Amino acid sequence: MAEMHDLTALEQAGAIARGELSSGDLVEHHLHRVAAIGDTVGAFVTVTADLAREAARAADAVPAEGRGPLHGVPTAIKDLTLTAGVRTTFGSAAFVDFVPPVDADVVRFIKAAGLVSLGKTTTSELGCSLYSEGLVAPPARNPWQLAYTAGGSSGGAAAAVAAGLVPVAQGSDGGGSLRIPASLCGLVGYKPSRGLVSGGPLGSGAFGLPTSGPLGRTVTDVAALLDVMAVPVPGEPYLPPAAPPGGYLAAARRAEPGRLRIGRFTTPMLADEPVHPDCVAAVDRAAALLTAAGHEMVEVPAPLGPEAWPLFEVIWYVLALAPVPPPRESELLPLTRLLRARGAEVTAGTLAATLGELQAQVRLGARRTAGCDLLLCPTLAAPQAPVGWFTADGDPAADFDRQRRFSPYCAIFNVTGDPSVSLPLGTTTDGLPVGVLLTGRYGDDGRLIAAAAQLENLSDGWDRHPAIWRAVDSANVNGDGVGRSPS
Question: Where are the transmembrane segments (predicted)?
Fold first, then answer.
């Protein structure tokens, strides 16, 4: 018999609309699962059970005509994202007691759409790394194999969705932070075009690299959450691209991108690094499916190469200079302290010159692939990495370099601002997920969503679940939410 968490986000909302389930039912079910295995997979820093129950009651009281496509569905907010009245640590012991007075715009939109947050998901400290292993929560582990990382910086969000703790989650992506965890955990992770989702009400735009985005099991769920997030807000530093007719969910349901010219490459961009055969095989499978559907597949050079890395890393150092109370600097992790120390040495002139040179590199890369509607490449250079692997030798500089070599593709598309999505199309020889990266033209999110949905249909779907999905069910959880071991 199917459990509530087996339903996709849209199916859960449909069950609410038909009166078969209430938001309260779904919230209690998912809170039970969080209590049973949330710490096992390191999904949450803070669980807001009472607030979630209150929000579910409010959602159930809304008249049917006032409900959107995800009304009443459980979700979660990344711990980097401001949430009024809820502890938001930014993944750091330096902010372990911080409670914001305001919601980020994206949180306001999620609440207004009737989704119910169960809490704040684990992230890397200040979003500085592609793994989520800090001091304020258990490490985010891959539900497919707990010895492996769920990635970062949206690692807790990915762990929560892949373990069936919520059907969709909010995350953010400044250098691959949605797409990396999605690839590792067998999910769809979507980085929108620059400006599509508001970064307000605080912050300067961070050179246009980071953006909030959705994480889920299916393209339609992700598109529905993107519709919720993509609300234009006055005063944002980047003009939001126009939505497709009917919105992103409609584009996903149509799954008709038209005939596309797709540029394929597997050469890493930020590092001269061998690519694992399983990652190449996933790209080959995607290329074969898309070609069979009538799209033109062409080999193209990678838009940028390792020569762009010294430019990107300067910007990454500066982005690590988030305000931290001086007395608490010593509580930061070694990697964060290293990045901030290097960032403090970057002069205004060096930063301006770096941004100019990087934009010149982006222009050259865009010209190399100008005839393509989409680009197809691996999400990562290797399928998985163990928890603790990046920090194993205790050298934060080696840690940072190891991250670059593990993920040499994603960050370039934060620099260009193009929409980019990791899709769980491949598997390793032992059955672990492997993602592929599809990237569209700037502002053409509707076509990218449609192509991703078409590829999902061509692959006969990819909503698979790890063993832990069945390791706890309603029969294994007390009414007070305390987990029992399965018999």
Answer: none
